Amino acid sequence: PEGIVPFALDKTAAHQKFVAWISKGFFRPKALKTSASLDNLRNTYVPYFTYDAQAHSLWRGESGTYYYTTESYSVMVNGRSERRTRQVRHVRWTWKSGTHDQFYDDELICASKGLAGGLVEKVEPFNTKAPAPYAEQMLAGSEAEEYSLDPKDGWRQAAQKMVNNERAACSKLLNGDTQRNLQVSTNLSGVTFKHLLLPIYIASYQYGGKSWRFMVNGQTGEVVGDRPVDWKKVLLVVGGILVAVVGLVLLLAR
User: pTM value?
Assistant: First the structure.
């Protein structure tokens, strides 16, 4: 690895983050905080590739602006025809084109096939602007995983993220009330990458006879994971909403 982002939270702080996280939310079981049994909290340095590239995009498309006209129509009321009016929406289309340039710095791709996707993407981001130079003694007391993703495959993932972001950025430039036929051509150049180790607490807890996974960002303290839902509370809220809607409908029908 070229660099390492040290843990900013110790296990005690990570556990406190977990307790605060598991208590949040009205739809959580009341006994969750007191009954959840935490398994081993593993402080793990997870391998990542970070990619840099300069993007240059050419775009063109149609920007639509809404305008309205008044339309007359007939309706039968008590056997008689009456004339009424309504507003009809139309779209005025305009072709636009332009360019968009952006430098992508440290686009993160998890290099562990076992952890990629799912929770690990939600526990991001990390501040990777000034990682510490890698030194083996920095791993003392922590687990560290070797990368299992080929760097070229990682680049394909990063490039797709950049291309998708470019399309979204060009869509904003096209603007309008609505759009159609947006075409974006993106060129990525000056590609570089680094192999970094980033700090994540990986753990699970037991509740209701089931194991629930979660992760804690060892730099920011962000907690993500799976939590059970108290479906009685969900049904109570949904039932209350339905009663309110029915009551409103009956009131308006009087």
Answer: 0.80
